[in-house]
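Q: C-alpha cells for this one, please.
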Amino acid sequence: MKESLKKLNSLDAKKYHLIRGAEPNTWLFVCLFTPGDDSRVIHRFEAEDTDPDVAVAKTVEQIDAWLLKRFRESD
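A: Here is the predicted structure, written as C-alpha cells:
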C-alpha cells in the first residue's frame, strides 16, 4: 500500500479513504481526484477487494488509466 499512497500523493490526491466493503471481509477504497488544471472538476475512483492493499492499488490503476486516456485525447 505504501507505493500506492506515494503515487496518490505524487498526483496531489487529497481526499481518499478506506472503509469496510459492502460484502463481508472486503474493503472499499474511494479516491476523489481533482485534475490539476480545473479545481472545479472532481472524479470519483473506487475499488473493493478482500485485501485492502489490492483495493488501493486497483484504484490507483484506474486513475492512471484515466489520466493516460485524457492525455491521449488531448493530442
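A few notes: The radius of gyration is 13 Å. The longest strand covers residues 27-33.
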